[in-house]
């Protein structure tokens, strides 16, 4: 009685198997034909072709390895700075004759009299400052330390993916960002770089100078210019045509500039202006930066929710993840650099909660990014989840800014 039914399903599965076999044969046919052609050639032809194929295997093998190996990725990287052990804000004397005054970082910076060097251009040259007593050592900036280390993570401990030749060539001409493969690390690195760029601007414009009485610090100005360089330059380019300095070289120069500034700050030869109004401005800029990312995630989540089939969802997710990864360290460092402001204005509880929210966001590390509908029940919505954490952090930053502005 069941024989006709069994026979029917046998025919169905046989047809499916035959179809799969034909599809595989169609895909493999060019390679089989090329293999047959290759076997019939002499070694004069075989040799160069084998070398070219070997070079391609090594070229793309190295590229794939670099995109998958996230060296020293550590969501708890802030712990190694031991920020709680810092006893004074950035720029304040920590040892030597000047330490006995008990000045805050802002007061110490303000009390270093600015002197305009003869013939110097005040818009580009940092003003000389009168030195504190000989032997005085000042507290370096944790913000600068973290910023320099984030650059080091991006371009020294890992390859900078966005300017690698294989990444620029794409997948048969298709931009890797438009595919589901091999672009997550590049997006993560660009997210970190966004946080670094924003911080570099604030260090130059306000934190690294006494507003109205000193010029721009040359090391910070150089770092800002280098870190703003585009993210995709290789050793050679077409527009303009010719050899170029690749992106990682500029970023390494920015790292060196940041470290030079901190050396000068430790010698009390530079300024870190840790006033409350500077902290207000710093938090406001970061909140605006996160607000922009939130809008991008919202647009992708609302209008392109293709679930696991949205090939750009992973780019948006890992960019925002990298941005939060960077700001987790930078904001943790800011709490140490502005330690006097945080304590005096009663920000410790909300500041601690903000850092906890940032760390919680870094726990979201799905294997495959899905941009499903928010009311869906099959495919998850990782973008909306990340957007939720970004908005939580941003709302806390806005609240802290409002408290400081009162």
Automatic annotation (TrEMBL):
Keywords: Membrane, Transmembrane, Transmembrane helix. It comes from the Bacteria. The chain crosses the membrane at residues 12-37, 49-65. This is DUF2333 family protein. It comes from Sinorhizobium saheli. The lineage of its organism: Bacteria, Pseudomonadati, Pseudomonadota, Alphaproteobacteria, Hyphomicrobiales.
């Amino acid at each position: 009685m069941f024989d006709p039914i069994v026979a029917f399903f046998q025919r169905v599965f046989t047809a499916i198997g035959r179809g799969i076999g034909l599809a595989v044969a169609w895909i493999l046919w060019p390679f089989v034909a090329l293999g047959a052609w290759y076997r019939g050639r002499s070694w004069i032809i075989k040799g160069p072709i084998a070398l070219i194929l070997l070079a391609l295997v090594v070229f793309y093998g190295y590229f794939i390895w670099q995109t998958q190996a996230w060296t020293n990725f550590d969501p708890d990287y802030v712990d190694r700075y031991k920020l709680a052990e810092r006893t004074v804000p950035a720029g304040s004397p920590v040892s030597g004759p000047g330490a006995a005054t008990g000045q805050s970082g802002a007061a110490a910076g303000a009390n270093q009299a600015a002197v305009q060097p003869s013939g110097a251009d005040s818009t580009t040259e940092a003003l000389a400052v009168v030195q504190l007593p000989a032997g005085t050592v000042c507290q370096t900036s944790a913000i600068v330390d973290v910023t320099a280390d984030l650059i080091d993570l991006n371009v020294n401990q890992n390859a900078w993916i966005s300017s690698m030749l294989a990444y620029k060539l794409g997948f048969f001409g298709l931009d890797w960002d438009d595919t589901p493969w091999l672009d997550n690390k590049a997006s993560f690195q660009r997210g970190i770089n966004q946080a670094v760029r924003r911080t570099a601007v604030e260090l130059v414009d306000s934190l690294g100078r006494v507003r109205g009485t000193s010029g721009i610090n040359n090391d910070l100005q150089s770092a800002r210019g280098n870190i703003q360089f585009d993210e995709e330059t290789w050793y050679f380019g077409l527009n303009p045509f010719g050899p170029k300095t690749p992106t990682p070289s500029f970023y390494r120069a920015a790292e060196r500039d940041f470290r030079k500034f901190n050396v000068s700050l430790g010698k009390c030869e530079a300024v870190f202006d840790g006033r409350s109004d500077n902290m207000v401005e710093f938090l406001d800029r970061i909140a605006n930066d996160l607000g922009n990312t939130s809008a991008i995630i919202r647009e992708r989540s609302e209008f392109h929710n293709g679930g696991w089939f949205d090939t750009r969802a992973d780019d948006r997710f890992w960019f925002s993840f990298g941005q939060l990864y960077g700001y987790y360290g930078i904001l943790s460092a800011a709490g140490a650099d502005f330690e006097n402001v945080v304590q005096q204005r009663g920000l410790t509880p909300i500041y601690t909660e903000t850092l906890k929210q940032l760390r919680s966001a870094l726990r979201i590390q799905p294997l495959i990014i899905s941009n499903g509908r928010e009311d869906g029940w099959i495919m998850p919505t990782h973008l909306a989840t990340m957007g939720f954490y970004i908005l939580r952090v941003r709302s806390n930053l806005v609240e802290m800014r409002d408290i400081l502005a009162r």
